[in-house]
Task: inverse folding
């Protein structure tokens, strides 16, 4: 056992971070949120939000992600993929969450090898997740039943949403990759809060010297590290209860982390200009993907009744999801 | 990210299981919580069994008398002993989990040879004399004085909250050797024999009704200079090593125990009908997530500690913060499952609920842990 990242995993994480910093840094993020208006166009009513045009997916970036192996990461080499595992995918998605990279990343990643062009980033794939579809109109292929889908005016400026009537059955890998994105976002808001707390001064000292602020930051880090252990472990074991645990803890770390980050930023945190609200709104969107918290908690409750180790011969009565059950 | 066990690890696990199955039925009955001599004998007896079977000091370095086992084997050991319902470290807590490792890391050869083998063999019990009436969270404000007289330090002052003091042979003691130096620079770490003249132990009753800790009064107690670990006035640095063990790895086995309790709770709830209470059931599900993650965080911290030569880093504070809270939530949930019986002291979980209240205080309060996380990990400034 050595739970730490190995050298290849560190290199992969650094590579994805480098790519995203170069291709989707803060300026690009803000340009995506507030696209430069065409000359002569009238101010949108009540911008931001109100008359904002639907966000457009950056297809060039999408193909670059494809070339870098983001979507084909887990596809076997024999099928043109990178041939890596869930652990590596989790690291890549953590970086995506950190950078607030927009688009139906999880759906396209899961479609690699199944939908032509998904692996290379030539085809954008959306999917029903929970009772929502992200990026339905921008997608080339949509998986799941979207009859009667109704467009929402989405809370997150970079996640167009449609609501559908019938929930898709939750997919464990999608749930885990979502958890990884939440983890990346939580780590980022913790870092943003700490950065602000170190530099902003009030009463003649950095606000981070006040315990009320300091302790908010500490709790943010605790939630991040607990979620990180759960997400990485679930990536290694792939066990459904581990994935459910990872999702619960990562959702919590992302949502509460963004709220606390907002609090640490004071009035600045309530502005459109700050990135904090983008993290919070995206975290809310991801939290609606399947399974919902109640489903995860119920599954984890059932798991407590399953025998810790399977007897040699499976009596077939336990609630554990395994081939023998 | 490797969580796997080698075939050698699995063999180790299998042999350990066999040994536990053979030895546990022969243990004497557990003494009552108030029977301190009985508890001491019981805990030392168990340690002796471990020693004879080659399981004592599993993860201690070989040159400290340990077995130099990998972190994986240490975790397997904790997992299996807990699952099998083997006794917990008990009175051996300080010796095995923080004084011992501190001496192994900071002590001289003669000191290791004198103090470590008896801890491993289950012959001597240690206690921790750090806190004082006016030095709790602000430990470096401690005032117990020691001055040199020939080959001895002469120590006077008082300690408080000293767990297991009544039955201890040795005390890891912090004393002030230079009252003029800034408070962190005048402290020295000593090993004090508890039978030295001038020591008075007065038990204190905890809210659980038992006497887990004590006041220790020191009146001109002579401690040989050779019992000093680290240099004179360098005791604060040694203390940081001790505390990192105390916070970092000392609670590992308990996480496994909590996971077992949580399963027992689920079965109890199903038997008494509380399982149909959806919010309660979901609460148990969330606790399952919590303790699964804490176990993984343990594996993470142990893997990290391996890199730093076995001394756990500030990550121990992250763990301790969350674990102490989760443990309290676990026993609150237990009370919810038990309903009216949750107020019955004859139900084991009721007593455990009471003792869980100390977890956010002992070994550094949660507020202090948050300061540590903020200042040492996140780099936030100290307040004025
Ligand atoms: C069951 C148990 C066993 C123990 N065993 C031992 C033992 O064997 N040996 C030993 O030496 N000690 C032992 N202790 C003592 C323990 O380490 C101290 O109780 C602890 O460090 C807190 O010190 P205090 O009790 O003086 O509380 P105080 O330091 O007076 O704290 C009171 C409150 O003030 C808060 N506070 C204090 N300073 C700050 C600050 N800077 N910022 C924010 N909040 C602050 C604390 O968080 C706490 O809420 C034990 C304690 C318990 C409960």
Result:
């Amino acid at each position: 056992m050595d739970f730490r990242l190995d050298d290849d995993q560190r290199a992969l994480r650094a590579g994805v971070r480098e790519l995203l910093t170069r291709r989707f840094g803060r300026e690009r993020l803000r340009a995506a949120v507030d696209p430069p208006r065409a000359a002569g166009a009238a101010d949108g009513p009540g911008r931001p939000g109100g008359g904002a045009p639907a966000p457009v997916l950056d297809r060039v970036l999408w193909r670059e992600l494809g070339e870098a192996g983001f979507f084909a990461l887990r596809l076997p080499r024999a099928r043109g993929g990178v041939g890596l595992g869930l652990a590596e995918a989790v690291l890549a998605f953590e970086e995506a969450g950190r950078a607030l990279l927009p688009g139906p990343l999880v759906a396209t990643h899961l479609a690699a090898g199944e939908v032509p062009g998904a692996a290379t980033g030539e085809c954008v794939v959306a999917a029903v997740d929970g009772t929502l579809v992200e990026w339905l109109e921008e997608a080339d292929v949509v998986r799941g039943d979207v009859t009667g889908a109704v467009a929402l005016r989405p809370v997150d400026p970079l996640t167009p949403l449609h609501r559908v009537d019938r929930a898709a059955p939750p997919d464990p890998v999608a749930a885990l990759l979502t958890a990884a994105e939440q983890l990346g976002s939580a780590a980022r808001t913790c870092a943003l809060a700490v950065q602000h707390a170190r530099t902003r001064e009030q009463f003649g000292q950095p606000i981070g010297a006040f315990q009320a602020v300091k302790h908010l930051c500490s709790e943010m880090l605790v939630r991040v590290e607990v979620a990180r252990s759960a997400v990485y472990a679930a990536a290694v074991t792939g066990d459904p209860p581990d994935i459910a645990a990872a999702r619960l803890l990562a959702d919590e770390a992302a949502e509460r982390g963004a709220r606390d980050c907002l609090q640490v930023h004071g009035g600045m945190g309530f502005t459109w200009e700050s990135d904090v609200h983008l993290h919070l709104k995206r975290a809310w969107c991801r939290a609606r993907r399947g399974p919902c918290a109640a489903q995860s908690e119920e599954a984890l409750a059932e798991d407590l009744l399953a025998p810790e180790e399977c007897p040699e011969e499976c009596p077939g009565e336990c609630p554990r999801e395994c081939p023998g059950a | 990210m490797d969580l796997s066990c080698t075939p050698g690890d699995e063999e180790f696990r299998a042999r350990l299981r066999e040994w536990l199955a053979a030895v546990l039925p022969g243990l004497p009955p557990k003494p009552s919580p108030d029977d301190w001599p009985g508890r001491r004998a019981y805990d030392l007896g168990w340690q002796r069994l471990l020693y004879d079977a080659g399981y004592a000091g599993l993860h201690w370095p070989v040159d400290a008398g340990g077995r130099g086992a990998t972190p994986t084997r240490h975790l397997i050991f904790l997992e299996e002993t807990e699952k099998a319902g083997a006794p917990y470290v008990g009175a051996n807590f300080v010796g095995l989990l923080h004084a011992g490792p501190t001496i192994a890391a900071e002590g001289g050869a003669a000191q290791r040879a004198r103090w470590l083998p008896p801890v491993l063999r289950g012959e001597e019990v240690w206690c921790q004399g750090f806190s004082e009436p006016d030095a709790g969270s602000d430990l470096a404000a401690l005032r117990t004085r020691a001055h040199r007289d020939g080959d001895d330090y002469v120590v006077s002052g008082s300690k408080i909250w000293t767990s297991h003091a009544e039955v201890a042979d040795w005390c890891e003691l912090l004393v002030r050797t230079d009252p003029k130096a800034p408070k962190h620079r005048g402290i020295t770490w000593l090993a004090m024999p508890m039978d030295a003249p001038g020591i008075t132990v007065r038990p204190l009753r905890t809210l659980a009704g038992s006497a887990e800790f004590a006041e220790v009064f020191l009146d001109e107690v002579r401690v040989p200079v050779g019992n000093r670990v680290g240099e004179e006035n360098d005791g604060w640095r040694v203390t940081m090593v001790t505390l990192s063990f105390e916070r970092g790895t000392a609670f590992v086995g308990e996480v496994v125990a909590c996971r077992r309790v949580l399963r027992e709770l689920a079965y109890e709830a199903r038997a008494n009908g509380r399982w149909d209470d959806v919010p309660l059931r979901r609460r148990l599900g969330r606790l399952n997530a919590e303790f699964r993650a804490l176990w993984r965080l343990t594996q993470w911290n142990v893997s990290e500690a391996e890199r730093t030569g076995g001394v756990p880093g500030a990550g121990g504070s992250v763990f301790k913060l969350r674990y102490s809270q989760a443990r309290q939530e676990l026993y609150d949930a237990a009370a919810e499952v038990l309903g009216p019986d949750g107020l019955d002291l004859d139900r084991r979980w009721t007593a455990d609920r009471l003792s869980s209240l100390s977890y956010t205080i002992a070994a550094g309060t949660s507020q202090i842990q948050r300061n540590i996380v903020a200042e040492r990990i996140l780099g936030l400034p100290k307040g004025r």
User: Anything to note?
Assistant: Chain A is about 50% helix and 5% strand. Residues A 211; B 127-131, 136-137, 161-163, 212-213, 358, 361-365, 367-368, 371 surround flavin-adenine dinucleotide (CB under 6 Å).
